[in-house]
Amino acid sequence: MTSSTPTERLYDIVEQGLCIGCGLCESVAGRETVSMMKVPSGYQHPVVIGQLEHSTVDTIYDVCPGTRVDGMPDAHITEGTSIDPVWGPWRRIALGWAGDPAVRYEGSTGGVLTALAQYLLASDRVDFILHVRASTVEPLFGEPTLSFTEADVMAAAGSRYGPTAPLLNVHDVLDRGQPFAFIGKPCDIGALRNWARHDPRVDELVRYWLTPVCGGWGTPTFAASFLDRMGVDPDELTGFRYRGRGCPGPTRAETADGSVDAHYLDYWGDDASQWSLPWRCKICPDGIGEAADIAASDAWPGGSPTREDSVDDPGTNAIIARTAVGQELMEAAERDGALVLEREIGPAEMSEYQPHQVRKKLAVSPRLQGIADESRVVPRYSGLRLDELAAGQSVEVNTAQRDGTRERIRKGKATEATPKPIGSS
Ligand SMILES: Cc1cc2nc3c(=O)[nH]c(=O)nc-3n(C[C@H](O)[C@H](O)[C@H](O)COP(=O)(O)OP(=O)(O)OC[C@H]3O[C@@H](n4cnc5c(N)ncnc54)[C@H](O)[C@@H]3O)c2cc1C
Ligand code: SF4
Ligand code: SF4
User: Fold this and answer.
1) In the predicted structure, residue 309 carries a pLDDT above the cut 90
2) CB–CB of 34/167 below 8 Å?
3) Which residue from 167, 126, 133 is spatially nearest to 21, judged by alpha carbons?
4) pTM of the predicted protein model
5) Residue 160 in contact with ligand 3 by CB distance below 6 A
6) CA 157 to centroid of ligand 1, rounded, Å
7) CA distance 364 to 287
8) Ligand 2 near 23 CB (within 6 A)
9) 195-205: per-residue pLDDT in tens?
10) Which of 169, 264, 267, 411 is most enclosed, with most CB atoms within 10 A?
11) Among 22, 24, 44, 108, which residue has the most ligand 1 atoms within 8 Å of its CB, making it the best to mutate?
12) If you average pLDDT over residues 53-72, what whole number do you get?
């Protein structure tokens, strides 16, 4: 029996760096009880504003992607599905791009997720797409949106590398009773899959699950430092586009006075060691979207673009069809011209494009052990082969990951302030 209050228990998730800001807890608790808001650290987190009960927090712990991460539900692993130790369930992996050059151009990489979402609407397979677009309130953020037309989908193209809560209004979305597709990061997909165990409407209404492969997004401090380097006052910012319009396309900060462009590498740095990510992303058990029908990634050898090669790059996605539903969609979209598939690849080539994902997948199990050593909340996980992957590593490597995690926690690098509204005492 815990002596913590329900609010303290919810805040443990945030304070221990496990909240990625998906918004599901606001839906679970009700917006009169928990409100997702920008907090003084610059993140978007749940703040308790009403009477929160232990039973509600129990449910949140069962569905929050900070506390529970599962792989593909067994029912979707069917004949013809292979399980790669690192890359998980897959049926086909191919390089490709959107059939419409305008979509390929506008998209983050090759516009595959936008093209698939448009195809789902055009072929009447779903009534709308639940995904995100650039926030209309906080230029660095994303915000949930429902796209009913191909133009709506196009307007939401591009990756958002800032706080983004796609599941904020998921109860309202399910209340519509209409079939839809969900595009969200792997943690968002996991959260909604978790919610499916509590709400049967999820499996009934979510017909397609699509995800970007995800290495994480920039911390608020990282984004602020970028704006500072660009000479842009954050208070003057009216719009922000992280990438897209070519691959990766310009990172563009807009103010009333005009816009400033930078290269993707000016934002992220020249290699993965320079990325400043939320703690949850550093210990992410699934950045590759194991529970999605289709996961789409970049296809840059070594994991990053070069300044030279990316000048005129029209964008090529690596596309993983994980389920029979995903494979059928991929093939139908190719047949009808929504997608161009260039050639088949396999897990080994994926690893060449995503060395950071491979490194993280191997490191997660000992990192989670390090969290347990420090008596913190440890995300439960299943179906992701994490312990088996760590068992293939040397004891020295695993110990270094485990001890490094403990050290970061002790230094406060995995701790966030208690969430509260900006301006409150
Ligand atoms: C936070 C983040 C980290 C990423 N890390 C990697 C990586 O490590 N390796 C890699 O290969 N690729 C990564 N990507 C994926 C890559 O940036 C492209 O999104 C992917 O290749 C799909 O490209 P596309 O052209 O098909 O996307 P588009 O056609 O532009 O479609 C993108 C779709 O993703 C949705 N979306 C955008 N941002 C978010 C968000 N923050 N949360 C939820 N949904 C969102 C949009 O609503 C849109 O529907 C990352 C993407 C994101 C958002
Ligand atoms: S990750 Fe999502 S469900 Fe978990 S605490 Fe954060 S916003 Fe709530
Ligand atoms: S790295 Fe993991 S936790 Fe972070 S945004 Fe991506 S899927 Fe979510």
Assistant:
1) no
2) no
3) 167
4) 0.98
5) no
6) 9
7) 11
8) yes
9) 999 999 999 99
10) 267
11) 108
12) 98
